[in-house]
Write a structure and sequence with these properties.
216 residues; five-stranded antiparallel sheet; globular; alpha+beta; Dna Ligase, domain 1; D-amino Acid Aminotransferase, Chain A, domain 1; 3 domains; 22% strand
Amino acid sequence: METFASAHMVLPLCCWDYHADPQRFLRWICDLEAMGGQLLNPPVTLRWNLRKTYLLGTAQSGLAVPAAIHLPTADEGTIERHMRDRGWDVAVLKPAMGQSGYGVRKVDLAQRLGWSLDDEGTADTLLQEYLADIGALGETTLTFIDGEFSHAVRRNLAPGKWRAHQRYGIVPNASMFPTRSSARRANTSAQRRSCRPMPGSTASCSRMGSCSPNPS
């Protein structure tokens, strides 16, 4: 811990398993903060971003994020009822805490008899609308630093895939750095979507218009 505390800046980019022991991760953040360590993003941002329920708050703020429902427990009947109520033929079920595609599954009403939902994977989850166009268009992330557009990266999905993550075979395009005119358009678009930094400082905006701390 002393090594972290004495560092000029700590970037917690490789905590791939924090969801397996979140209290330990939170204690690490708290201890480092108490010792005067410099985290980027700040501790308040890391705590806020720990659970995907932050998406519900961003939606209430008027940001264009995929519709989501928090389910403390999710059995087949509950999932089916919520999907039918909202007119979703396909949805995504994911743990409220996780990353890199951990525990994420696609549920299709047409295949509901074949759903296999174990207890571990259905406690404290988010049920989210499925955006089919990501499979065709990929996902473009616009990164803003201190409110100014810095660059964008587009991640194209492998054929037949629906999750935009490298473990599922995405093909990232080279980073796109802005010209003066493209930066102006991006900043204007962000302002129209009320894309402000969340707790902390920097933020990144996805092509769907959602905002999340960067890094996540």
